[in-house]
Amino acid sequence: MILVNTDYITGKELEMIQLVKGNTIQTKNVGRDITQGFKHLVGGELTAYTEMMNDARALATKRMAEEAESLGADAVVNIRYASAEVMAGAAEIMAYGTAVKFK
């Protein structure tokens, strides 16, 4: 499965199938939240949250690719990511793009 954020793949003629997406909702871990709260006092990167968001993006991307594969797609083009707070302490990450077949 080829995943790109462009609307083309060099050397390939594409037939669009449909929009595909994958998402996940992540919440803060209380222990993580306390330790990261201390970091707020001194400044710097909140590495536990960075890791959580990286994992969330990877999972959303995997779910999007699985949906594309189930449709018989060869690739997903024009991939985008979105995030939104669902409730206090919980965020949704969504990956979406266009599933395509090679002609």
Secondary structure: elements and pairs:
Layout: E1 2-3, E2 14-27, H1 30-42, H2 47-70, E3 75-87, E4 90-102
Parallel strand pairs: 1-3
Antiparallel strand pairs: 2-4, 3-4
Give the overall shape, derived from the CA principal axes: elongated
Kindly state the mean pLDDT as a whole number?
Answer: 89
Per CATH, the superfamily is: Hypothetical protein apc22750. Chain B
Q: What order do the strands of the largest sheet run in, or round the barrel if closed? A: 1-3-4-2
Number of helices: 2
Rounded Rg: 17 Å
Q: How many beta-strand segments?
A: 4
In percent, how helical is the residue content? 25-40%
Secondary structure class reads alpha+beta
Which residues form runs of ≥5 with pLDDT under 50?
Answer: none
Number of domains: 1
Known CATH architecture: 2-Layer Sandwich
Largest sheet: 4 strands, mixed
Secondary-structure element pattern, one letter each:
EEHHEE
CATH topology: Translation Initiation Factor IF3
Strand content: 35-45%
Q: Determine and state the CATH class.
A: Alpha Beta
Span of the ends, CA to CA: 15 Å
